[in-house]
Amino acid sequence: MDAEEIIKDIVIEEISKEEKIKHSVETESLTVSFNGREAISDVNIKIRSNAVTAIIGPSGCGKSTFLRSLNFMHDLTPGAKVTGTIRIHNKDINEFDMIEVRRKVGMVFQKPNPFPTMSVYDNVVAGLILNKRYKRSHLNEIVEKSLVLAGLWEEVKDRLKLSAMALSGGQQQRVCIARTLAVNPEIILFDEPTSALDPLSTSAIEETLSKLKKEYTIIIVTHNMQQAARVSDFTAYFFLGKLIELGKTRTIFTSPKEKLTEDYITGRFG
Amino acid sequence: MIDYYAKVSKTHAQRRKLKSAVMIVLCVIAAFVALLPLLYIFFYTTMKGASSLNLAFFTELPKPVGETGGGMANAIVGTFVLVGLGSVIGIPVGLMAGIYVTEYSKSLIANIVKFVTDVLSGIPSIIIGIFAYGVVVLPMQRFSALAGGFALGILMIPTITRTTEEMLKLVPHSLREAALALGIPRWKTTIRIVLRTASGGIITGILLAIARAAGETAPLLFTSFGNSFWATSLDGPMASIPVQIFNYAISPYEEWHRKAWAGAFVLICLVFIVSLIVRLATRNKYSQS
Which residue from A98, A234, B155, B217 could staple onto B242, CB 3.0 to 4.6 Å apart? Predict the structure, then answer.
């Protein structure tokens, strides 16, 4: 067998593997523009289920825009226009109700934003009780489960009735994660979840992330490349609104295919 | 050389300190001047009014000239009814207009509404009274509590709309996003998250509007008119404290002047107590301060 054939075999093997792999999110020529100016253009990406996919790239490259388009958050920005398709579990998101998409695709934001008028407990169940009635015992169960998963239960189990604002920034962010988990989404988007936090809180949240991927598909936008390397299985590099490269995190960080990715990773740019 | 500079900077520093002291003194004087009328009004009404107060003032109807005793029971109840009617119109309209402007409208409509409410809040209250006279009193062919409540309601709308708007604007956008990202419908996000977060400021605005409405005389003069007896229905004339004070104050009778002072004192106390109760009742247990 000569080299060419070996490569062919590997490619075929990769392709057949690819078919068995499940993808939670797929986009096809996704373009988002604000008042006619394109923030991301022609993005084709497949996000693996039950894995952490990190999205990296310099400021203004469209990372957040991409993330926000996945659960209709762009809808809040006046002048936003989306073309192309986004599929969640092989179904076009426009076929879902907007509310339904947002319940399937949860989101944790850059700055901790617990509801200031609510207790820790009420914050966690906010997404549930503001939609329909639940039994108290059922809610108690969900609160415990979500807070345990968010790695906060031990710290707040005696202070559930306290204002969420009384917690530290890192704890508040984990309340926000628990709040997202309580709604039981399938995919969770993290938009630079640790950039406003200290290193200790950051590592607590990173630990949570790696626990979460067993049950959820996770997409995280981060400015911190070490973080991307630490927490993610796959990494996508965005530059000037385009997806440059998507691959296994180790591959992206050691031997990226694209020159642009390499420049960014090695710090020659960005 | 060095001495020269030291000398200059020393006198310069002295002059600077002197200027600072003068400005501080001016500010303190201005603060006193601003507070003085308020304190004066408060003490003067208390002095003049509190002494004329007795139980009868709260329980009895006004007596005719020449008879001593009697009270303002009908006017006190009337003020509550009129302000209540005004609130029924003013609070929902003002609140919803404020919500619409900040949460749902495009900037052009928001600016138009803002401009109109600003103009409306600048309209003298007597003109609003005339408007209510034309819109309610003339078609109904009589003075009525309804007309008075209508006038007060219109008076309350701009204050409530503007404070609602300003307070909602202070709620960070990230809270709305957080709620929507949880799959909470927009209207519930507005009511249960945004409005609740801003409730403290909005309630202050509503209280200001109520306090102002409670003390308004001009728009009531030719709408609810006044009444020496108990009003039996909302479509008849009704007494109110401010109008009663006005009628008593312009009368030549010493006894009525005393009643007017007592009425003024009661009015101030009512506004104060209502503010206090609402504030305590709606105090947010998680509010920070």
Answer: B217
φ, ψ of residue B69 in degrees (nearest 5): 85, -165
pLDDT digits over B35-68, tens only?
999 899 889 999 988 888 888 888 888 888 777 7
Phi/psi for B219 (5° steps) reads: -70, -15
| Per-residue pLDDT tens digits for B212-270 | 899 898 999 988 888 888 888 888 889 999 999 999 999 998 888 988 999 999 998 88
Cβ burial of B21 (10 Å; 0-12, 13-18, 19+) is exposed
Entry pTM: 0.79
CB contact under 8 A, A117 and B184: no
Is the CB of A127 less than 8 angstroms away from the CB of B197?
Answer: no
Distance separating alpha carbons of residues B114 and B98, to the nearest angstrom: 9
Which tokens belong to B224?
């609810």
Burial zone of A225 (CB within 10 Å; 0-12 exposed, 13-18 middle, 19+ buried): middle
Which of A109, A117, A118, A128 is the best mutation test for B, with the most CBs of B within 10 A?
Answer: A117
Cα–Cα distance for residue pair A149/B232, rounded to 1 Å? 64
**Widest Cα–Cα separation across chain A:** 69
| Block residue for tokens 């749902």 | B104
How far A100 CA lies from chain B's nearest CA (Å)?
7
Q: What is the DSSP letter of A51?
A: S
Per CB-CB distance under 8 Å, the chain B contacts of A99 are 183, 185
Q: Which of A73, A119, A131 sits opposite B177 (nearest CB)?
A: A73
Of B225, B208, B28, B35, the C-alpha closest to B144 is B225
Residues of B in contact with A190 (CB under 8 A): none
Residues of B in contact with A100 (CB under 8 A): 183
Q: Among A113, A133, A159, which would you mutate to test the B interface (most chain B Cβ atoms within 10 Å of its Cβ)?
A: A113
H helix runs in A130-183, sequence order = 136-149, 153-156, 169-182
Instruction: Say if CB B207 and CB B194 are below 8 A apart.
Output: no
The interface predicted TM-score (ipTM) is 0.84
Establish, for the pair of chains A and B, how many residue pairs have beta carbons separated by less than 8 Å.
Answer: 80
**Candidate from B180, B188, B286 with C-beta closest to A117:** B286
Q: Evaluate whether A34 touches A80 at the Cβ level (below 8 Å).
A: yes
Residues B187, B192, B193, CA angle at the centre, nearest 5°?
100
Q: Rounded distance, CA B246 to CA B236, Å?
A: 20
For residue A58, report the phi and psi dihedrals to the nearest 5 degrees: -70, 165
CA-based nearest residue in chain A for residue B283:
A117
